[in-house]
Amino acid sequence: MEKGVQRWIVDISNWNPSSNDFSFALSLLPQTHHSSITRFVKMEDRKRAMVSLLLQYALVHEVLGIPYSDTVINRTLEGKPFLECGRFCFDIPNFNFNVSHHGDYVAIASEPLCLVGLDIVNFTIPEKEIVREYIQNFSSCFSSLEWDRIITAGSNEEVLTEFYRYWCLKEAYVKAIGSGLGYGLHKVEFHHINWRNISVKVDGVINPRWRFWLFDLGKGHWVSIARGHPRSAVESYKRSLKRTEFNEEEYNVGLHLPNPRFVFKTVEELISVLHKALCSC
Question: If you ran DSSP here, which 8-state letter would residue 235 be given?
């Protein structure tokens, strides 16, 4: 089952495709996804959208071995991507994945049994904004305990770092359950010991069926991963899962699987995987 636990990441700052290279990469993806890439005006945004889809299709093909021509990836009403398994059977009870991109990085994480949520943040604020004034706009998204820890963190840089760490974890949880933008982030409160042994309270109740990790990617970027129980998923996302109920022993196996380091991939590697997969169809 550990094969279903994957962590891939791409640094897109190293990818500067020509118009022809970009068109070739686009041609490898199903036509149904093209508009979700070309709708962006800025090339940086197009690159992020492109690499996000390349990661999804390459990971599904490599991990599950599903023929590329039979791979169908859709989104729920709330926007979470999922694999339509259809007639294919594999020995992974609840394969699901999540993607995130911000700044220089695009990443994907998958799990074989638990829900998975992934979020990347780049520690920036809009130009001419003052740190404490900027974060004040988001104070309603945090519990009083979290907010106190943020504003008393120290220097402006330390305050901003604390703010984004909490934000990153909240987003990973919300994305894991498949909820949309309307989810009340203040309802999710995180506790930690020096940002390790991270636990969560939802609506004031500790939830031991979740685990979280937070990593410094460098260049002002952090990434968080949430792993939790499928029964926590919103209804639209539950319908995409094979199973939402497990006995305690089964679930604990999934919850305590190793959390591997991210494997760095290049866009060229992803393109090669999909090109070979497409040619073999």
Answer: H
Return mean pLDDT, the chain.
94
DSSP string over 87-151: T---S-TT-EEEEEEETTEEEEEEESSSEEEEEEEE----TT--HHHHHHTTGGGS-HHHHHHHH
Residue 102 phi, psi dihedral angles, 5° rounding: -165, 140
Task: Label residue 103 left, alpha or beta by phi (over 0 means left) and psi (-120 to 50 means alpha).
Answer: left
Q: What is the pTM of this model?
A: 0.95
Instruction: Compute the chain's Rg from CA coordinates.
Output: 19
Determine which helix (DSSP H) or strand (DSSP E) holds 37, and give its type and residue range.
helix 34-38
Domains and CATH numbers, the chain: 2-279 (3.90.470.20)
Q: At 17, give phi and psi (nearest 5°).
A: -75, 145
Residue 129 binned pLDDT confidence (cut-offs 50, 70, 90): confident
pLDDT of residue 86: 57
